[in-house]
Amino acid sequence: xxxxxxxxxxxxxxxxxxxxxxxxxxxxxxxxxxxxxxxxxxxxxxxxxxxxxxxxxxxxxxxxxxxxxxxxxxxxxxxxxxxxxxxxxxxxxxxxxxxxxxxxxxxxxxxxxxxxxxxxxxxxxxxxx
Length: 129
Known about the structure:
- By secondary structure, the protein is an all-beta fold.
- Helices cover 0% and strands 48% of the residues.
- It contains no helices and 11 strands.
- The strands form 2 sheets. Strands 2, 4, 5, 6, 9, 10 and 11 form a 7-stranded mixed β-sheet that branches.
- A hairpin with a 5-residue loop joins β5 and β6 (58-60).
- It starts with a strand and ends with a strand.
């Protein structure tokens, strides 16, 4: 079955970097969009970035553009989120999600969490001042 396992979260100072990893299994990654979402306490889950493995298109939330980079290791079926210049506002639980619905493959809808059927368990990222 589809499985996503995140890792790489932790505590980092403002301005620091972290790299999150999402290990994907149980499906053909080439046919899916894999996205990163985050949820801070008391806030709604928001889309951070996504990679359309069908055509290589990447998407980013405005709040992370220029600081975060999503990438894939084809051989390992891993998707990474490199996070640089971290800010306290980036503190959240980060989730990896995937789906092959056409709705996840558009610039206007990739960040809608309800379009993703499969989710990892999340990894905590805490950015201190």
